[in-house]
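Weekly puzzle thread! Below is a chain. First person to post its structure in token form gets bragging rights.
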Amino acid sequence: MGRTDVPRVLIADSDSHLRELLYSALLAVDVFSDCVSTVPDAVAKLNEEPYGVVLVDIALPGGNAEQIVARIAELHRDTRPVVLVLASNPASARSLDIDIVQIVLRKPLALRSTVELIRSCVQSASARPTMPAEEEGSGDGDQLVS
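Winning reply:
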């Protein structure tokens, strides 16, 4: 297990090669992550640990990304993780809750820039203060497609 003062990353993707690449590249920059390959596994991990960043493949087997996004909304009313969605076709992410999903990344990923983005998100997650749910923003978050 990683340092408890630094938020962890949950990588949910069915592509074992991509999971291993991201895990290793993040570990090299001192970002600790857990990897899963199905929707039920992702939901189970979300129930176990508060993640600072959640990276979800839109086409994850065993359900759909909406189930993961909904679980994040249920579990994290006061502080939410940064949620990044991976999609070959970014239009497929349009149905996801924009109050939860901040960034949509186009597959295939550029590994170096993706790792830097995740590292930046982890740093932001560790720096943001906890605020009561009624003070949360109105969900004006942007979605980035790279």
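Puzzle host: Confirmed. Bonus trivia for everyone else. The longest helix spans residues 111-127.
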